[in-house]
Specification:
The complex is a heterodimer of chains A (238) and B (270).
Chain A lengths: L1 H16 L1 H25 L7 H26 L3 H7 L5 H30 L7 H25 L3 H17 L12 H7 L3 H9 L6 H27 L1
Chain B lengths: L2 E12 L2 E12 L3 E5 L6 H9 L6 E6 L3 E4 L11 H11 L6 H6 L15 H13 L5 E5 L7 H16 L3 E6 L2 H7 L2 E6 L2 E6 L1 H8 L3 E7 L3 E6 L2 H15 L3 E7 L3 H12 L1
Parallel strand pairs in B: 3-7, 3-8, 5-6, 6-7
Antiparallel strand pairs in B: 1-2, 1-4, 8-9, 10-11, 10-12
């Protein structure tokens, strides 16, 4: 347990020292919020009621699909995993500590973005903060599950950048944060539901927790666990 | 005689390519044992099968002792600091940090630098320190001095000798014949998935059967000849020179380097 906790604390520090988490979880989303938050609320004042949720969908998707898999590749796409294995460190340690560390980073950046939107653009805070943060947590976990699979399957940074963008862009465009999903053709609307973004957006808007609103993020998380276990088993046998 | 490692009939294939064709060898406790071979001979595969990092198709490996492993190609996260890596691995192995060892390997001097800022030699020393963290009985070193400068190489050789003096068994794979000749008690030469020789350097020379080459330089002439019987040959030639009252300038006896013997044996086996 001591080894695990040290590994977790170390990963947290490494994430701060490395650039990918810092850029994708903090710098870009915060800059985006500062610029676009002003523009959105100036053009559409009614967006104040959904500004926080919209910015968080973008911030979490960026961190989970673009930043997090890059951190995974550094370990699982290189000889680092072999060194860990040779020195008695279990192969799952990297994934688990990186997942938890990224979760905490995304939570922190979400709180910063929420407070900035509230202070600068009079964004309306969620009525039920407990439900809001629970929804946010489910959204982050589901998004990081997809990021985990990406980071374990893809072994090259260049390929990862391309595939991450292919997931990130439709995830944002079809999530409902740019324009209401009801305006979308049925096919695009259904494609959008493959990504956790629209589910997370609805959960953060406090549309209520029910089986219908949470089943997909929960399934994504468990599918993520199973796929990652299989991928790690493959890594181990390699 | 107690064995640190016993390997029998070790076989490994990569698809249709047979890499190890049934290796049999033993490594004694406390010895420095080296695997020699050209690229692709199966040195790293043999080591990784013994280390448990690679699955093998058949055979048996019996090991008596705790392992420490320094891999041929090693890496750590770019932003990790040496002491953080040492702490992480020592916590997972439930062992106390040996600060004297870290000092001896020069890790203390670089403890606050990031891994990406370390030189090749410093990285090698760090990976050796990580391999030694759990106080292992058997230490595997795969190309330990590759990429090191002369100073770094000599420092690492001293460290390896020190480990041997502490009773550790050291198994290394190397391309560096001079290093192997200087350090190792016994050598196994791998060629095309087979061990074509296993024994001491002297046994290898005897097996190759190379003669001694004697070169004698006097003020008047330079004489060179080959012989099997170095003792009598030298006595008789020196007596002859004495009778001629020749002034001796230099005398060299050469039986070839380990490299030459290795090449000769590999050619024969091929």
């Amino acid at each position: 347990m001591e080894g695990f906790l040290y590994g977790l604390a170390l990963q947290w520090k490494l994430d701060i020292r490395g650039k990918s988490i810092l850029v994708t979880c903090y710098i870009v989303p915060i800059l985006f919020t500062l610029i676009m938050g002003g523009i959105f609320t100036a053009i559409m004042p009614e967006m104040k009621s959904t500004l926080i949720q919209s910015m968080l969908v973008l911030s979490v998707s960026m961190g989970a699909y673009i930043g997090f898999p890059q951190v995974l590749i550094e370990t699982y796409g290189s000889d680092i995993k072999k060194v860990y294995k040779a020195n008695g460190v279990p192969i799952y340690l990297g994934l688990v500590t990186m997942f938890i560390s990224a979760f905490v980073h995304l939570m922190i950046s979400s709180i910063i973005i929420m407070l900035l939107d509230y202070a600068l653009y009079e964004a309306i805070l969620p009525d039920n903060l407990l439900h809001f943060f629970l929804g946010l947590a489910m959204f982050i976990v589901a998004s990081l599950s997809i990021g985990s699979i990406l980071g374990l399957i893809i072994k090259e940074q260049a390929k990862l950048t391309m595939i991450s963008q292919l997931l990130f862009l439709p995830s944002i465009m079809l999530s409902g944060i740019m324009f209401p999903r009801d305006f979308l053709p049925a096919m695009l609307k259904n494609i959008g539901r493959i990504f956790p973004a629209p589910w997370g957006y609805q959960l953060m808007l406090n549309k209520g927790f029910s089986f219908e609103s949470v089943w997909y993020p929960v399934i994504l998380f468990f599918v993520g666990i199973i796929v990652c276990m299989l991928l790690l088993k493959r890594e181990k046998s390699e | 005689m107690s064995y640190a490692i016993q390997v029998s009939n070790l076989k490994k294939n990569y698809g249709n390519h047979i890499v190890l064709k049934g290796l049999d060898f033993t490594i004694l406790k406390g010895e420095i044992f080296a695997f020699l071979g050209v690229n692709g001979a199966g040195k790293t595969t043999t080591l990784e099968c013994i280390e448990g990092l690679k699955k093998y198709d058949s055979g048996e490996i019996i090991m008596d002792g705790k392992m420490g492993i320094q891999l041929q190609s090693s890496a750590l996260p770019a932003h990790i600091k040496p002491m953080e890596a040492v702490k992480l691995f020592s916590k997972w192995n439930n062992t106390a940090i040996d600060y004297a060892l870290l000092k001896a390997l020069g890790i203390e001097e670089i403890k606050n630098r990031k891994y990406l800022q370390l030189s090749t030699g410093q990285k090698r020393r760090l990976h050796l320190a990580l391999a030694l963290i759990g106080n292992p009985d058997i230490i595997f070193l795969d190309e330990p001095t590759a990429g090191l400068d002369v100073e770094g190489r000599l420092a690492l050789h001293d460290q390896i000798r020190k480990l041997k003096s502490q009773g550790k068994t050291i198994v290394l794979a190397s391309h560096d014949m001079a290093e192997v000749e200087t350090l190792c008690d016994r050598i196994a030469i791998l060629n095309n998935g087979n061990i074509i020789f296993c024994g001491t350097a002297k046994q290898l020379i005897d097996k190759v059967g190379r003669k001694y080459l004697i070169i004698i330089k006097t003020e008047q002439e330079e004489i060179s000849f080959e012989t099997d019987d170095i003792e009598n040959s030298l006595i008789s030639i020196l007596e002859e020179l004495k009778q001629k009252e020749a002034h001796l300038l230099d005398i060299k006896v050469d039986r070839g380097t380990l490299e030459q013997h290795f090449i000769e044996l590999s050619r024969r086996e091929a």
